[in-house]
TrEMBL record:
Belongs to the class-V pyridoxal-phosphate-dependent aminotransferase family. Csd subfamily. Residues 27-395 form the Aminotransferase class V domain. This is Cysteine desulfurase. It comes from the Bacteria. Its cofactor is pyridoxal 5'-phosphate. It catalyses: (sulfur carrier)-H + L-cysteine = (sulfur carrier)-SH + L-alanine. One of its GO terms (molecular function) is cysteine desulfurase activity. It comes from Amycolatopsis keratiniphila. InterPro entries: Aminotrans_V_dom, Aminotrans_V_PyrdxlP_BS, PyrdxlP-dep_Trfase, PyrdxlP-dep_Trfase_major, PyrdxlP-dep_Trfase_small.
Length: 405
């Protein structure tokens, strides 16, 4: 890609093909996990010899790591454009972050969500109104309006939506959804697992109440994620995990505990300092990058990917043609089993894609149905920093060969 100076590890990895030759790996599975940014690897490499316990250690390295952990939180806060009184909790990933929020919402909260959600934003909620997947961004907003107008007063309402679909890449109208939610006294939580690596998210400007995302999709390693947002529900909830670090005071009798407030309340146990620092390095690198140039590059590659696949007669692309979409294209090939397509792409072309229902079973099934696909599952190709036009062209040539056209 041009227009930015960011680079990822692994672009020189070679893989063996079924015919015994070797080829540079074409990773087209960024929506599952993105490769590590060089900047992230450098920061982690510097920290590895130095890490030590955080928060209560008096030694120099403990103090250094405590400082780095809290600076990481500040980087994430800035990256997301959070309000001054928002809490930024480090979690394991998006799934963990959304489960933490589900744990923290007041008990009588009604959660309004859509069928188009990833399971991480579909399954953790207790009392749910699940709206059908909308056909357009405008119909998403009007469906929310109708659903919220039908709610009786007197209980909290949380609208839980994705920032961008992990199946179609379609970007959701967050500012309009937030304004609609607030007009009805509801809050909005955004699953930004897919959006955060590709678009600037400004929590305060968009009016979002909560945002969740994962490090491993944001060019940092596994094991760290974030829940950021309003403090009140989080401060009133029972700690997500009970244990050291989440307490202000523990008395001698069982149950005599004063819990901490703020992020510490939900971060019991030794935290993932390296993960947090890695994630913050990714946030810093992306915040400093020319995101418009990056997005222009990704848009051009997305169009190339989409149009190239759409020209193959046997290919059916899942999606509803929303105007703004990330570089994610899910598709089927008529007459060929999905697993055969992905396996042949790997073995004959050195390409890594994903196949299945992408942890969004109801939504992907509906899209397959709408596309008239005979296959019960789909292949997904997804891109990001480090993707080249050669990767895209190789995929298109591979699918063309597999489709026999
Ligand atoms: N939401 C979306 C939209 C996703 O794409 C994913 C990952 N596929 C998740 C949530 C869950 O992320 P994680 O596995 O990192 O918890």
């Amino acid at each position: 890609m041009s227009g930015n100076t960011l680079g990822v590890l692994g672009s020189d990895v070679k893989v063996g093909l079924a015919d015994g030759t070797k080829i540079a790996y074409a990773n087209l599975d960024y929506a599952a996990s993105a490769p590590c940014l060089r900047e992230v690897a450098d920061v982690v490499g510097e920290l590895l010899p130095l890490y030590a316990s955080v928060h209560r250690g008096a030694g120099a390295l403990s103090q250094l790591c405590t400082e780095k952990y809290e600076l990481a939180r500040a980087s994430v806060t800035a990256f997301l454009g959070c309000r001054a009184d928002d809490v930024v909790v480090f979690t394991r990933n998006t799934t963990d972050a959304l489960n933490l929020l589900a744990h923290a919402v007041p008990p009588d909260t009604v959660v309004v969500t859509f069928e188009g959600e990833h399971h991480a934003n579909l399954l953790p909620w207790n009392e749910v109104v699940r709206l059908p997947a909308p056909s357009s961004p405008e119909s998403a907003v009007s469906a929310v309006e109708t659903a919220l107008a039908a709610q009786t007063a007197g209980h909290p309402i949380l609208l839980a939506v994705t920032g961008a679909s992990n199946v179609t890449g379609e970007v959701w109208p967050l500012a309009d959804l937030a304004a609609t939610a607030h007009r009805f006294g509801a809050r909005i939580a955004v699953d930004a697992a897919q959006l955060a690596p590709h678009r600037r998210i400004d929590v305060a400007a968009l009016g979002l109440d909560y945002v969740a995302f994962s490090g491993h999709k944001l060019y940092a390693p596994f094991g760290v994620g974030v829940l950021a947002g309003r403090a009140d529900w989080l401060d009133r909830a029972r700690p997500y995990l009970a244990g050291g670090g989440a307490t202000a005071h523990v008395g001698d009798r069982p149950g005599d505990v004063d819990w901490a407030t703020g992020a510490a309340r939900h971060e019991a146990g030794s935290p993932n300092v390296i993960g947090a620092v890695a994630l913050a390095a990714a946030c810093d690198a992306l915040a400093a990058a020319d995101l418009e140039a990056l997005q222009a590059d990704e848009d051009a590659l997305t169009t190339r990917l989409h149009d190239g696949l759409a020209e193959i007669p046997a290919v059916r692309i899942l999606g509803r043609g929303w105007p703004d979409r990330l570089g994610i294209v899910s598709f089927t090939v008529d007459g060929i089993e999905t697993r055969t397509v992905s396996t042949r792409l790997a073995e004959e072309f050195g390409i890594g894609v994903r196949d299945g229902l992408f942890c969004a079973h109801p939504f992907t099934r509906r899209l397959l149905d709408q596309a008239g696909a005979t296959a019960p599952t789909a292949v997904r190709a997804s891109i990001g920093i480090g993707t080249t036009s050669e990767h895209i062209d190789r995929l298109i040539a591979g699918v063309r060969a597999i489709a026999g056209s």
